[in-house]
Amino acid sequence: MLERHCILVGMPGVGKTTIGRRLANRLGAEFVDLDAVIETEIGCPIRTYFEHQGEAAFRDIEARLLERALAAEPPCVLSTGGGAVLRAGNRQAMHQLGTVMYLRSSPEHLARRLRNDTKRPLLQVDDPLKKLKELYAERDPLYREAAHYVVETQRGSVATVVGHIAMQLDLMRA
Ligand code: S3P
N or C end of the chain, less CB within 10 A? Predict the structure, then answer.
């Protein structure tokens, strides 16, 4: 049983949703994908919302629904969008109310994984690798600030990463 929410943060395309779902399964906990919760609330894809309402409006909804997810019981595995760490209030709330795992990967690796992506509004640009490098430079310190633990995801399979996180959660409880 989870004692606190296990919150996954990290760059777009790092595998927060895939890893989160598998981890929840292994732990017998509920899995909550914050981006999916947001899409249900706004009633359209995040990309469409970004295009019509802008990023600031999206961040307001993201902060509100993150707060709601963190207040919910019982503890769950929560995957967040890559920009959820941008607001200091979000970082503090996640750190206080959950165990935060930063799934880390390099911009080059992420660019390979995301080369056919059409869903992520921030990456619909001519040079996605350049954009990922900029996002990484800005956000890597923020992910580290929010996190209790950094998980390298570049080399391991999904199963390896899930096993690593489960072991770390056990150790942290000890
Ligand atoms: C965003 C990442 C997306 C989504 C939104 C904004 C970001 O989630 O929340 O498009 O700012 O990096 P993923 O990390 O699941 O791609």
Answer: C
Task: Considering only CA atoms, give the Rg of the chain.
Answer: 15
Tens digits of residue pLDDT in 132-150 = 999 999 999 999 999 999 9
Per-residue pLDDT tens digits for 28-60? 999 999 999 999 999 999 999 999 999 999 999
HSE toward the beta carbon, residue 121, CA cutoff 13 A: 15
Nearest partner of 164 among 15, 12, 37, 31, judged by Cα: 15
What does pTM read for this prediction?
A: 0.97
Dihedral of alpha carbons 119, 121, 126, 130, sign: negative
What is the DSSP code string of 107-128? HHHHHHHTTT--S-GGG-SS-H
Pocket test for ligand 1, best of 52, 90, 122, 153 (most atoms within 8 A of CB): 122
